């Protein structure tokens, strides 16, 4: 793409280009060597926003040997860091909370796209992410995918199918989906962090009222704030529990979206839900004829965010 066309690209178009470049990128993605079980027991993954989702995925795919911890929790309780190896996930490498914690550690690794960032300089080692992108400030898609898969590869071995049908299935399912005024995204284990990621894309692109929760906890808490016409999205394959939940939610007037693929491969299912989350917010933004991501236009909110993050 020439510099002229990039200059006039809008942030939603940049987001779309990044999304559609992911299947091809997977051909080039290289996994890391997994840490031993002994090391994993003394390892923490941390990050903020999308990067915390990547950290949470590492925890789940390690069968909970590693821990994912919010960076502010580490700052407020330094004893958690004692004798621990810490992986800091940050695309920019400039998140101030991560940098402060990194300076308190003796064994740390930055997972970042910026080799000369403050975080990389504060850590003893770095894993540099090399995803291609549109070189525009937009919502995270391919950057998240590489960071997530990198974190997972540090705790377990896996191979990635190059089958493009996963992306095409997510594309088809997301395109036919209609959202209500409020959205509740539910997941379990490795799909719960993706429910969080899906909500983040809805916030960033659309500014909608969205919530993420574990399937079990939803029926104990958020259910009591529900209103007729709200949308509930369930990230989990069919089973007797969610089949009963869907029946009951439909009975009280809720719109249920239950996207899924027929596979028991956790990585394939993960990819499907990541793609679906990205495309869902993209197509909803297009329906609203948006040209830019909501967080780009919400300048006052972004100013508050930047002041706290950096």
Q: What do you see in this structure?
A:
- The protein is of the alpha/beta class and 310 residues long.
- The protein folds into two domains: 3-153, Glucose-6-phosphate isomerase like protein, domain 1 (Rossmann fold, 3-Layer(aba) Sandwich); 165-295, 3-Layer(aba) Sandwich (Rossmann fold).
- Helices cover 47% and strands 13% of the residues.
- It is built from 16 helices and nine strands.
- The chain has helices at 3-7, 11-20, 22-25, 37-40, 50-61, 71-76, 96-102, 118-122, 142-153, 165-175, 191-206, 215-218, 240-251, 266-287, 294-297, 299-309, and strands at residues 43-47, 67-68, 85-89, 108-112, 125-128, 182-187, 209-214, 231-235, 255-257.
- The protein has a five-stranded parallel β-sheet with strand order 2-1-3-4-5.
- Helix 2 runs antiparallel to helix 14 (266-287).
Please outline what is shown here:
It contains 16 helices and 9 strands.
The geometry reads as globular
What is the spatial order of strands in the main beta sheet?
A: 2-1-3-4-5
Helix and strand content put the structural class at: alpha/beta
CATH fold descriptor of the largest domain: Rossmann fold
Rounded average pLDDT: 93
Any idea what the radius of gyration is?
Answer: 19 Å
Tell me what portion of residues adopts beta-strand conformation.
5-15%
Which percent bin holds the helix content?
Answer: 40-55%
Main CATH class of the largest domain = Alpha Beta
Instruction: Count the beta strands.
Output: 9
């Amino acid at each position: 793409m020439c510099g002229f066309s990039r200059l006039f690209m809008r942030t939603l178009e940049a987001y779309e280009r990044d999304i559609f470049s992911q299947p091809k990128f997977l051909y080039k993605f290289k996994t890391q060597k997994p840490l031993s079980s002994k090391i994993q027991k003394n390892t923490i993954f941390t990050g903020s926003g999308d990067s915390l989702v990547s950290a949470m995925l590492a925890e789940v795919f390690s069968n909970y040997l590693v821990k994912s911890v919010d960076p502010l929790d580490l700052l407020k309780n330094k004893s958690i860091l004692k004798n621990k190896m810490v992986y800091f996930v940050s695309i920019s490498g400039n998140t101030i909370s991560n940098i402060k914690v990194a300076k308190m550690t003796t064994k740390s690794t930055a997972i970042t796209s910026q080799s000369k960032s403050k975080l990389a300089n504060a850590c003893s080692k770095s894993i540099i992410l090399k995803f291609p992108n549109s070189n525009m400030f937009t919502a995270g898609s391919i950057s998240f995918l590489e960071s997530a898969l990198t974190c997972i590869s540090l705790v377990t071995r896996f191979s990635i199918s190059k089958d493009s049908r996963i992306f095409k299935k997510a594309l088809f399912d997301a395109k036919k989906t209609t959202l209500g005024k409020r959205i509740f995204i539910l997941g379990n284990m490795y799909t719960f962090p993706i429910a969080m990621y899906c909500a983040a894309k809805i916030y960033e692109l659309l500014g909608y009222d969205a919530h993420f929760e574990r399937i079990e906890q939803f029926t104990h808490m958020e259910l009591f704030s529900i209103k007729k016409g709200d949308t509930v999205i369930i990230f989990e394959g069919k089973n007797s529990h969610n089949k009963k939940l869907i029946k009951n939610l439909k009975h009280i007037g809720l719109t249920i979206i239950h996207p899924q693929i027929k596979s028991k491969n956790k990585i394939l299912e993960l990819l499907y839900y990541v793609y679906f989350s990205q495309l869902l917010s993209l197509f909803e933004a297009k329906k609203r004829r948006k040209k830019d991501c909501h967080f780009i236009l919400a300048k006052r909110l972004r100013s508050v965010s930047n002041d706290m993050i950096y």
